[in-house]
Amino acid sequence: MRTLVTGGAGFIGSHVAERLLKRGEEVTLLDNFDPYYDPAIKRRTAAELGALGARLVEADLREPAALAEALEGVERVVHLAARPGVRSSIEDPVLTFQSNVNGTLNLLEAMRARPGLRHIVFASSSSVYGGDAVAPFREDQPASRPLSPYAASKRACEHLAASYAELFEFRVTGLRFFTVYGPRGRPDMAIGKFIGLALSGQPVPLYGDGSVVRDFTYVDDIVDGIVAALDRPSPGFEVLNIGGGCTATMRELIDLIGAALGSALEVERHPAAAGDMPKTHADLTRVAERLGFASRVPLAEGLRRTVEWARVQRAQ
Questions:
Q1: pLDDT score of 16
Q2: How far is CA 284 from CA 142, 172, 240, 258, 289, in A?
């Protein structure tokens, strides 16, 4: 079985690729090494995966011609490549839509051109629930008021994928991820940023009063959900939440990171950020029934593992 992982040198993609390789599968990585954060980090990760047997195709989903090579011999796709970030999408919504929506469309079209390649698992986001969601968020809620261009792009990708399932018999599972963290985490995300700043002796930024609530999900749990969706393909189109199942405020998160580090973090206050949802919390009923998913790593333990990894990286 050969699987294409788009965004395969990135945070979640590299963990998925590693899991598949270690269970004896063939993996093709597609990555454009976008400079959203230091490409050297992703290149080191790609080299490590290459040593495990992964095949790398360096290409951009916005370039349809490049996809033929990436899909050679592929039987299913994990689509994780995207332009991330709520705040970056507010700064440049055009790039967000070109990368996320046009890139997804190009991938679906390239798959449609290959007979028999109809199985895709793709990353959506808890951001799609937006301003009309009631926590804990259920997949049957409307998700009709996105609070950022990023959220809107992810919701558009869901609709696009659903149309391919309807028209072209694709088997599609969209997974709405809830604030993923862990080793190799993106350095711009709160947990990775806070740990990095604290280890450097710098204050961490806190936007607003610290009451924003997030459902934090350790990366191993996310990979469990992705692999389960690969192994149990949907007969058509579905979306499922993948979350940690418990929540913490940003103030509580800072205290928990301090506990994992062994010292309290210094906090630097900032105004509340535009586009941020006040709360995310996943209802995991449907994914438990459909895939047998249950989160396994509590937040305190996940933070301990992430801090340990970050310390090792700094020592190298």
A1: 98
A2: 17, 19, 8, 29, 9
Which residue in 180, 125, 188 sits closest to 14, CA to CA? 180
What is the distance of C-alpha 139 from the center of its chain?
A: 17
pLDDT digits (tens, 9 = 90+) for 245-273: 889 999 999 999 999 999 999 999 999 88
Region 2-180+218-245+281-296: CATH code: 3.40.50.720
Instruction: Please check whether residue 183 is in contact with residue 307, taking contact to mean a CB–CB distance below 8 angstroms.
Output: no
Contact predicate 65/41, CB 8 Å? no
Other C-beta atoms closer than 10 Å to the C-beta of 47 total 12
Residues 3 and 231: their CA atoms lie apart, in Å, by 12
- Which sequence positions are flagged as catalytic? 150
Sign of CA dihedral 23, 45, 183, 11: negative
Pairing of the two strands 180-181 and 76-79: unpaired
Nearest to 313 by CA among 41, 48, 9, 37: 41
| Cβ atoms within 10 Å, residue 312 | 10
Say how many residues make up the chain. Answer: 316
Q: Are 293 and 243 in contact (CB under 8 A)?
A: no
Q: So what's the pLDDT on residue 277?
A: 87
Q: Is the dihedral of CA 285, 218, 263, 212 positive or negative?
A: negative
- Helix (H) or strand (E) segment spanning residue 15: helix 11-22
Phi and psi angles of residue 210, each rounded to the nearest 5 degrees, phi first: 85, 10
Token output for 146: 């996105």
Q: Residue 221 CA to chain centroid, in angstroms?
A: 12
Going from N- to C-terminal start, the domains of the chain cover 2-180+218-245+281-296
For the chain, residues with pLDDT lower than 50 are: none
Q: Which residues lie closer than 8 Å to 95 by C-beta, 6 or more apart?
A: 83
Residue 267, CA distances (Å) to 14, 248, 307 in order: 31, 17, 18
Tokens 């806070």, residue? 194
